[in-house]
Amino acid sequence: MKTSIYRSLALAFISATAYNTYAQNTESAYFNDEYMYRFKMNPAIGNNRGFVAFPALGNLDIALSGTAKVKDFIYNVNGRTTTFLNPQVSTSKFLNSLGSNSRLGTTINAGILSAGFKAFGGYNTVNISTRADVNLNLPKELFRLMKQGLQNDTYDISDMRANASAWAEIGLGHSRDINKRLRIGATLKILVGGANVDAKFNKAHLALGTENWQAVTNATINASVKGLAYKTDINSHTGHEYVSGADIDGTGINGFGTAFDLGAVYRLNKDWAFSASILDLGFISWSNNMVASTNGTQTFETDRYSFNVDNDKPNNFSDELDKMKDQLSALYELNNMGNLGSRTTALAATLNLGAEYTFPFYRKLTFGALSTTRINGSFTWTDFRLSANVAPSKVFSASAAAAYGTFGFSFGWILNVHVTGFNLFLATDHTPGKTAKQGIPLSSNANINFGLNIPFGH
């Protein structure tokens, strides 16, 4: 069986695990009072001062994240770097290192303009940025098939999925005190869609027995990309026309939408404060939907083994096996269904729940607990983080945080220098551990967050 579609997704996943970058909200800075961008994690949080971001330097975040580790796919064999496909890497060693699903989640948030100021009875923010979400989920069975090749066995490669969205947003936020204890805030976001692709491989059940082979598959790709057209080719053995790729003729606006961030902070007393927020409650309506599909569930079954040991004969073993492989691969050779019109997709929402305790014997020291859940269907992830936060002087503050969640254990921190007319911070949610020679974290989790802003007011 041809595994080109499987190999393409898997190798793309491995490459992304090794080199992928993304920008996000730095959760380790949630309780750091001088971190200017806390409003992006909870719109009820207002800064003590106004600020204007340096263009392209206000909040830069570069990171790696994934449930699978680079070291699970890259090995050292006889002093040379190789992949898990090397025959000298044992199948059991490779498969035992993987979970039932290997996931990669990426969020890009590139700020164009950010500012905050006190007015209208509260604190206000303006934020213009470009964003993108990319998610990939590959089941363990896919890698078993790639590693073992065709054997008399059963493979269930269901729930393989890839999703990507890109858009621009304009956010206008306002927060204010309701009374001495309660503060609320909200951000309205106007969204301008760029592109969305959602590939769902709902079913791929392969039963390769000694008496017969059977495969049952179901897959659909929805692509809302301006100027996209699928390329097709013909399977020489089956005569089936299938989608072999895509061309994009130009780019541009491809949809519109709206979203809201909502938040609240409740101060129980002088020592305890609690907060909650939900981000990205909204949708984008895309202008088109180019669909490629198996057109329902497809089934292939054969018990014909009419092979000839003579390689010169038309039905020699090699040729007949190639034909059978092509027939199986045709199950995932998608049909071009054309443009089926507009469609609407929801953003991936994020829920934050926080609690902060001020140390009574040194009130410049606080301790925080933050639970973060990204709600995104099969790509949902969670993170629970404990932090210590200190502001020993007016010009310096710092936080250190330990976390555990979907992507494992991590240690984060932020160092923040804030003098008159100048604010500089350096932060991370995932301090890199052991790295490969190329500097790639073997855990697949690392990030660095840098920002330069101009504060004003008091």
Describe this structure in words.
The chain has 458 residues and is mostly beta strands. It has one domain: Porin (Beta Barrel), CATH 2.40.160. Helix content is 10%, strand content 55%. The chain contains 4 helices and 25 strands. It has helices at residues 4-19, 91-96, 140-148, 317-329; strands at 50-53, 60-64, 74-77, 80-83, 101-119, 122-139, 154-156, 160-177, 182-208, 213-225, 228-234, 241-248, 255-267, 272-286, 290-293, 298-302, 335-339, 343-346, 349-358, 365-375, 381-393, 396-405, 408-419, 422-428, 446-456. The protein has a 14-stranded antiparallel barrel. Strands 3-4 form a two-stranded antiparallel ribbon. The longest helix is centred in the first third of the chain and has 16 residues, at 4-19. It is globular. The N and C termini lie far apart (68 Å).
Helices and strands, with pairings:
Layout: H1 4-19, E1 50-53, E2 60-64, E3 74-77, E4 80-83, H2 91-96, E5 101-119, E6 122-139, H3 140-148, E7 154-156, E8 160-177, E9 182-208, E10 213-225, E11 228-234, E12 241-248, E13 255-267, E14 272-286, E15 290-293, E16 298-302, H4 317-329, E17 335-339, E18 343-346, E19 349-358, E20 365-375, E21 381-393, E22 396-405, E23 408-419, E24 422-428, E25 446-456
Antiparallel strand pairs: 1-5, 1-25, 2-25, 3-4, 5-6, 6-8, 7-9, 8-9, 9-10, 9-13, 10-15, 10-16, 11-12, 13-14, 14-18, 14-19, 15-17, 19-20, 20-21, 21-22, 22-23, 23-24, 24-25
